[in-house]
Write a structure and sequence with these properties.
heterodimer, A: 273 residues, mainly alpha, 12 helices, 75% helix, B: mainly alpha, MetI-like fold
Chain lengths: 273, 320
Amino acid sequence: MRTKPFKSIGFNLLAIVISVVIFIPIYIIIVNSLKTKTDAATMGIGLPTSLHFENFSTVIEKGKLGQSFLNSMLYSVGSTIIGTTLAAMGAFVLSRNRTRLNRFLYLFLIMGIALPTNYVTLTQVMQVTHLINTQLGIIILHAAGQIPFGIFLIYGFVQNIPRELDEAAIVDGCGPWRLFFVVIMPLMMPVLITLSVLSFLGAWSDFIAPLYFLNNSDLWPMTLAVYNFFGQFQSDWSLVSADILLTILPVLVVYLLAQRFILSGLTSGAVKG
Amino acid sequence: METKADAKPEAQPGTKSRPDPVARIKSKNKRGHTYPFYFVAGALILYTVFSVIPGLTGLLYSFTDWNSYTTDVHWVGLDNFATIFSGDENYLSFVKNTLVFTALTIILKTVLGLAFAILLTEGVKKLTNLHRVIVYLPAVLPMLVVGLVFKSILNPQTGLVNEFLRGIGLGGLAQKWLVDANIALYSIIGVDTWKGVGYIMVILLAGIQAIPKDYYEAGAIDGANPWQRFWHITMPLLTPVITVTTVLNLLYGLKVFDIVYVLTNGGPGYATDVVFTSVFKEFGQGRYGVATALSTLLFLIMVVSGYFVIRLMTRKDQAE
């Protein structure tokens, strides 16, 4: 309140220094993706002497980035739609109809937030369900992973949607499907967007599920493709940086556009009221 | 409810007749139609098949000698756990590394996250949101990318960290960050803090902003200095939030896998192996029994801590 000006400048400088230091690793990727192979060899912080945008086209061609980009999109978008929809339907019913069974199911489901995945036995489940080495398998696995946190987040939100709306809709002759998809879901949009963004980012960044369950490199998402690319071109950091930058570009764009929703979703669980 | 009914005289009779027991049974019956159970079924099936069943079968397999070389599976009781605790095969050091990682990341992320959050609420008036966006940014980056970039930054010869230390005349502090068995684990902890501190800061920041300003004004009137205001106002009111972040950090730390996998893959030797990287290696060698026993051990710890997480996260619902 009565902060002296020089003190305030000091605090601001400190905050800027912290932000700059935190940003350095991302900055390094950006500058080195535009350098020549020799300039990028040490991954230094210097600016490129000349801009080599052709690195990106080289990478797209050599790293099969087109295919892995489509795979990543398929996995992230597909699992987000399935996971968010199922979580929303479940949370809606569990929150509205609080029988003892539903109360227990709610706790049972959100327990999943804490549980670690047992990949050894999960592999068996994937084999039994014939989902191993399939794109559908990865989508379903990510969708299943989103459900506990999704139920938790939406459950709290549903409590703020007035019950009178349901009753009015039922009086007007809506069945449960129309009630949910036409009346309730549009009202859930804020929380659904938050959850979708978090799910999308989580699925995009994950590499463990494909590492365990996809042998065929044609099905790999961008994260694993980067790893593969690094294996082949580790001596050429300019290309590796360009490859990394293209992989994280969708993440950065979604994050910057939707950071408001992400931050609200993260804090709603931990800070209430 | 009352005010709503007053405002809308046309409100449904259903709301009003609720105290009547017959109507209540009816409406309870009707609730099953309006909120059908099959809406929950999809979420329940996916969760059960892909999370609960693997967890529970893992529990069973950890008492067997299941492996990839034979189709026969024998019940061996607690042999796998005896192997883990015997100390013959480094398993205890994996558990120890996991605990060190968990404890240090909890401390670092909480202290630094709290410091940043206070800096942003107290000291910084401009660009607060920009700082928040940047500090959280590492959390959204894919772990594989983080691994590749930090392997280059921490490279002993050409890495940025050692170049910087030499540049400012502190070349003596330059280390073989990820190669020296004595410090590799701490380097991983450092990188993980870089990635995860923003998440904790964002939660703590929201917690601090939820504290009513009146308390600070009253404190200032009573002559409390900033240090006293921090210890006697901020900390007590922030304790529930810090508990939540600590539990989140605990759960994350115990099941850590990816950052270790991408930075050192447990090396040099076994110096940085944690429980889940060793599970991955056991799995690769086909020793499923020991691998599931290790998973089970963590599974049990997580179920217990998970119980407390749920207690914390649903505390507001219970109070209602």
